[in-house]
Write a structure and sequence with these properties.
Blueprint: H1 2-28, H2 30-44, H3 49-60, H4 64-80, H5 84-107, H6 129-144, H7 150-170, H8 176-200, H9 211-229, H10 233-242, H11 244-267
Helix pairs in contact: 1-2, 1-8, 1-11, 2-11, 3-7, 4-5, 4-6, 5-6, 5-8, 6-7, 6-8, 6-11, 7-11, 8-11
Length: 276
């Protein structure tokens, strides 16, 4: 019990340290910025007329209006389940994560243009607002989901957040470090919110049937397989082998997304007293 109760605070500390490290590397270390730009070059190379519309639609799902609507759905789910504290926490997170990102953007603004880019990344690009919004929605959805649906919600949340992060990179709106920064801002505040929830609300029952993790893993494998099979295998392999820095960046973003959602999912149901 004590380990699980301390997990949100440990996660918040890890997110804060990660945010500082990523910010320093991205904005102050030229060699790290070169790797960042190399990763972005690999993502921008994936931009094709045939997928540009879908990529824009995915990124635009975290614009202000759809973000607010999705957030209100999360608040409504919490209220319908009788979880007023979680509804309040969700409403708070929807505002504070975006506000934090905007403050950091303007405090740390600096030119980060690359000569090879058709469009320049904005000076106020770190952290990414779209990535912050996507991860905030994913974590809030996990936070308010009923225990029996939490694993499925976590899986969909990871796919959504990482998908939006990749989309803004393919479109050339941000550097990979911007996406990492946005994820960490959302993870930091959500972890702190969960730590508070542990102290103010009745714990939920743990609901972990043996088949659920296996089902989630199976769905994840199926999704990856479908994505790979939708493209020419030889093309994917050659592209990846020629751009190891891009592959490293893509994996880092995906792993961070998985780690954050898993941590919040694990910490969201800390006990075994009655809850809906």
């Amino acid at each position: 019990m004590s380990v699980r109760r301390n997990l949100p605070l440990l996660a918040a500390l890890a997110c804060l340290l990660g945010l500082i490290v990523v910010g320093v590397l991205a904005l102050l270390v030229p060699a790290a910025h070169e790797r960042d730009a190399a990763m972005l070059h690999g993502f921008v190379g994936l931009d094709r007329p045939g997928v540009r519309f879908e990529t824009n639609v995915l990124a635009d799902l975290c614009d202000t209006l759809p973000y607010a609507c999705a957030g209100l759905v999360c608040v409504g789910v919490a209220l319908a389940r009788g979880r007023s504290w979680r509804a309040l926490a969700t409403a708070f997170l929807l505002v504070v994560t975006g506000a934090t990102t905007q403050v950091l953007k303007h405090l740390l603004a600096q030119p980060r243009a690359e000569h090879w880019m058709a469009r320049h990344v904005a000076d106020t690009s770190w952290p990414s607002g779209h990535s912050t919004a996507a991860m905030t929605l994913a974590l809030c959805a996990v936070l308010v989901a009923p225990p029996m649906l939490r694993t499925a919600t976590a899986l969909l949340g990871v796919a959504f957040a990482v998908g939006v992060g990749y989309a803004v990179l393919v479109l050339g709106w941000h550097f990979p470090s911007d996406v990492l920064g946005g994820f960490l801002v959302a993870g930091l505040w959500t972890s702190l919110a969960v730590a508070v929830l542990h102290r103010v609300e009745a714990p939920e029952p743990a609901w972990r049937p043996a088949w659920q993790p296996l089902a989630g893993l199976g769905l994840g494998v199926a999704a990856v397989a479908a994505a790979v099979l939708s493209a020419r295998t030889d093309t994917v392999a050659v592209y990846a082998l020629e751009r190891p820095t891009f592959v490293a960046g893509a994996l880092t973003i995906a792993l961070l997304g998985v780690a954050l959602v898993m941590a919040i999912s694990a910490a969201s149901a800390p006990g075994a007293r009655g809850a809906r």
